[in-house]
Write a structure and sequence with these properties.
By secondary structure, the chain is mainly alpha-helical. The chain has a single domain, classed as Arc Repressor Mutant, subunit A (Orthogonal Bundle). The protein is built from 8 helices and 3 strands; from the N terminus they run αααβααββααα. The chain has a 3-stranded antiparallel β-sheet with strand order 1-3-2. A hairpin with a 2-residue loop joins strand 2 and strand 3 (about 110-120). Helix 2 packs across helix 6, helix 2 packs across helix 7 (about 150-155) and helix 7 packs across helix 8. The radius of gyration is 20 Å and the shape is elongated. It comes from Streptomyces camelliae. This is MarR family transcriptional regulator. Pfam families: B-block_TFIIIC.
Length: about 170
């Protein structure tokens, strides 16, 4: 592990935090912690997802989104909107997933331009087989990227979550 990879709890505190001077309200501090934690998770997941599923991180996000939907799938426009991705990039990613046998595409009845995407049984099985490993990777990345102060900042943003864990 390099110095840049060290968990936040092992890194020196920011000077403004040490002096007690805080310019940002708790919500903005928590947002910054959330962004940093998300970045740490994404970085770690890119490697693990490629090794275990042989798909890109963006393709993995599509699979996860479809996994939480009914077997009928979602329209491509919905997938693009929910993931905040350009439709042209999504078309390429869906084509890659389709070639791998992980998603199916079909025209939407009554809509010439509408295309619906759904997980295949192969993708469902692959996600079942790897979900424990992938969830552990997320947990570990979060644990490594957030120290006590960062967790406290997150709890300040969503206090109801902190209350339900006790």
């Amino acid at each position: 592990m390099t110095a840049g990879d060290a968990p936040l709890s092992d890194q020196p505190a920011c000077p403004s935090a040490e002096s007690g001077e805080r310019l940002l309200p708790d919500e903005l501090r928590a947002w910054m912690v959330l962004l940093a934690a998300t970045g740490a998770v994404e970085q770690r997941m890119r490697t693990v997802v490629k090794e275990t599923l042989d798909v890109s991180h963006d393709e993995f996000l599509i699979l996860c989104l479809l996994a939480e939907r009914p077997r009928t799938g979602l329209r491509m426009t919905q997938v693009a909107d929910l993931l905040g991705r350009p439709k042209t990039r999504l078309t390429y990613q869906i084509a890659c997933l389709q070639r791998s046998g992980l998603v199916s595409r079909r025209s939407v009845c009554g809509d010439k331009r509408g295309v619906e995407v759904a997980l295949t049984d192969k993708a469902r099985e692959l996600l079942r087989e790897t979900s424990t490993l992938l969830a552990g990777t997320v947990r570990q990345a979060l644990a490594d990227s957030m120290g006590t102060e960062q967790r406290a900042a997150m709890c300040a943003l969503v206090p109801d979550v902190a209350d339900t864990e006790d």
